[in-house]
Amino acid sequence: MKLILAVVQDKDVNRLQDALTEKDFKTTKLASSGGFLKEGNTTLMIGVEDDYVDAALNIIRDNCSKREQMVAPISPMGGNADSYIPKPVKVEVGGATVFVLPVDAFHHF
Q: What is the pLDDT of residues 75-106, one digit of tens each?
């Protein structure tokens, strides 16, 4: 058995959860936040048998799209913030960061 931890942007999580549920994958949803853009994201915990890991990963890949987003950079540290005029830059957001972990034991009480 494996535990899949999928860190997903909030904009993708509902579509992903619906697709996983449609294929009978059970998920536990945890609110989390990212470090780079400091935006909310969601971590899904998905317990799967070894034979179904690839199917779950394919669903995650198909439903978590990468896209470009314009963001304003943060004022440089130690500089004069009054003269700093941020120029928005494009960054790639979305997709999913996925960890697949072995499970030694599973109990349902």
A: 555 555 555 566 777 766 667 899 999 999 98
Cα dist. 84→63, 71, 74, 78 in Å? 38, 15, 10, 11
Phi (first) and psi of residue 20, to 5 degrees:
-65, -45
Indicate the Cα dihedral angle 8, 76, 69, 15, nearest 10°: 20
The model's confidence at residue 60, banded by pLDDT at 50, 70 and 90, is very high
CA atoms within 13 A on the CB side of 25: 29
Q: How far apart are CA 64 and CA 12, in angstroms?
A: 6
Amino acid at 28: T
Beta strands in 1-109 (DSSP E): 2-9, 27-33, 40-48, 66-71, 89-94, 96-102
CB atoms within 10 A of CB 49: 10
Locus of tokens 């890949």: 61
